[in-house]
User: What shape does this take?
Amino acid sequence: MKNQNILIYLLLILAIATRFIPHPANFTAIGAIALFSGLYLNKKQALALPLIAMFISDIFIGFYSPYIMASVYLGFAITVLLGQYLKNKIKFINIFAGAISGSAIFFLLTNTTVWAFGTMYTHDLSGLFQSYYMALPFWRNELLGDLFYSGVLIGGYEMIKKLVPETNAVTIK
Assistant: This one.
């Protein structure tokens, strides 16, 4: 149980820290931690970890539109669900596809919400596509961050499991 709690606290610290250290916009570990959590933690903890990390860091970074915040949190919750779906299918290609899918869903969900509830874009199809277009640099960074941190976290964890088999006990049931 002690190792399980250490893992959760380390992931929480990493998720929060990557939102504060200097980084390109959206290049954080939150999406990868959501995917990792879905793969290795129980359902309740998997969902709570990235959302608590977001909330704690939002306290300091600042809150924003409730609709947009809800879409951001929902995007990470969906990524947790992707991880849970892949739980028994941990292979490089599946993790790669999971990271890309989570990032794409997050991009579409959050930018649709910005378009629907914001004032930056006209509320027609042209405005929706403009919101997607303008957000492409942020998506590139998010995608690269999700792929990088997923590789480090999931790849590293799987490598440790192979080298030190007793670490399988750290998977939280």
